[in-house]
From TrEMBL:
Protein name per Swiss-Prot or TrEMBL: Phosphate ABC transporter ATP-binding protein
Example GO molecular function: ATP hydrolysis activity
Domain of life, source organism: Bacteria
Coiled-coil region(s): none
PROSITE patterns: ABC_TRANSPORTER_1, ABC_TRANSPORTER_2
Organism phylogeny: Bacteria, Bacillati, Actinomycetota, Actinomycetes, Micrococcales
A Gene Ontology BP annotation from the UniProt entry: phosphate ion transmembrane transport
GO cellular component assignments: membrane
Length: 207
């Protein structure tokens, strides 16, 4: 058991009387991108939200490094396990102000996280209102990286981006996985799955 393994164990999720996940088990390993696939409505987002406790399963457990996430401090869990959403979630203000919302660091450190997403320190004073969708999503990824997460949950992070911008995010994620991060990436795009995935988990098939 590695400290960054994510294990989903027989999770059941009911919401408002509907069965959304019916006994799902999966394991996500460090140093790899696992693509989570499945038809629309199969519960991919619902599964991802359990991992950093944005939601709590009706039964079953999610373990991170062998420890039930229900027993972890939620802020500490979310620092260790970052999440990127389908649409960029910037705060108003400059790129620097956004990175500060992740963690107070020096500009040198901010330059390093921007570099990890193929941006440069020249971005720091730009207002997020003036950035493209692809730039914004990369700033949001950089913001998450300021807390030095061990794992990343990515919920269709490129679905609102053009193909070139999507490739940049894919390349950044591949490099992060190469450096040992555990990456769980929801996608319904089978070509993207084939480009990025070391492992594939199909929600729906395995229930
Ligand atoms: N709070 C809720 N109350 C009732 N139903 C919900 C709730 N949250 C999600 N659902 C339903 O659960 C099912 C799974 O939703 P989820 O967003 O996890 O699927 P998904 O596989 O990510 O879908 P997509 O590929 O379309 O984004 C859907 O039918 C959705 O309508």
């Amino acid at each position: 058991m590695d400290g960054r393994d994510v294990v989903v164990d027989q999770v059941v999720v009911h919401r408002n009387g509907r069965l959304i996940l019916d006994g799902v088990s999966a394991a996500f390993r460090p140093g790899a991108i696992t693509a989570v696939c499945g038809p629309s409505g199969s519960g991919k987002t619902s599964l991802l939200r359990l991992i950093n406790r944005l939601d709590v399963p009706t039964s079953g457990a999610v373990r991170y490094g062998g420890v039930d996430v229900a027993g972890l401090d939620v802020r500490e869990l979310r620092r260790r396990v970052g999440m990127i959403f389908q649409r960029p979630t910037p705060f108003p203000g400059t790129v620097r102000a956004n990175l500060r919302q992740g963690a107070e660091r020096s500009d040198t450190d901010y330059a390093r996280v921007l570099e990890q997403v193929a941006l440069t320190a020249s971005m720091l004073d730009r207002d997020t209102a003036d950035l493209s969708g692809g730039e914004l999503q990369r700033v949001c990824l950089a913001r998450t990286l300021t807390t030095e997460p061990e794992a990343l949950l990515m919920d269709e992070p490129t679905s609102s981006l053009d193909p070139d911008a999507a490739r940049v995010v894919e390349d950044a994620a591949r490099a992060l996985a190469g450096a040992g991060m555990t990456i769980v990436w929801v996608t319904h795009d089978l070509q993207q799955r084939d480009r990025i995935a070391d492992d594939v988990f199909a929600v729906g098939d395995a229930q």
